[in-house]
Amino acid sequence: MQLVAKFLRDESGATAIEYGLIATLIALAIIVGAGALGNALNAQFTTVGTTVNSAS
After folding, report:
1. Residue 3 and residue 19: Cα distance in Å, rounded?
2. What's this model's pTM, rounded to 2 decimal places?
3. Cα separation of 13 and 7, whole Å?
4. What are the two backbone dihedrals, phi and then psi, of residue 11, each rounded to the nearest 5 degrees?
5. Chain centre to alpha carbon of residue 35
């Protein structure tokens, strides 16, 4: 009976899950941000390339 009560009071597993969720959200934000940055850089280089080609 004491083993069950000790198991129910133990919150270390919940803490590990919370840290995992936080790490997942941070990784997702980095991935989305990197994708947006890549798209913005691609558009900028396309603009520069078009300008250079039309100038020559």
Report:
1. 26
2. 0.63
3. 10
4. -115, 10
5. 10
**Total structural domains in the chain?**
1
Name the token pair of 38.
């890549």
- What pLDDT does 54 receive? 93
pLDDT beyond 90 at 55: no
Residue with tokens 């009560």: 5
Residue 46 to residue 53: CA distance in whole angstroms: 10
Q: Which domain holds residue 10?
A: 1-55
Tokens of 29: 């934000």
d(CA 56, CA 53): 6
Q: What is the pLDDT of residue 7?
A: 72
- Residues 23-44 have a mean pLDDT of 97
Report the C-alpha gap between 9 and 12 in whole angstroms. Answer: 9
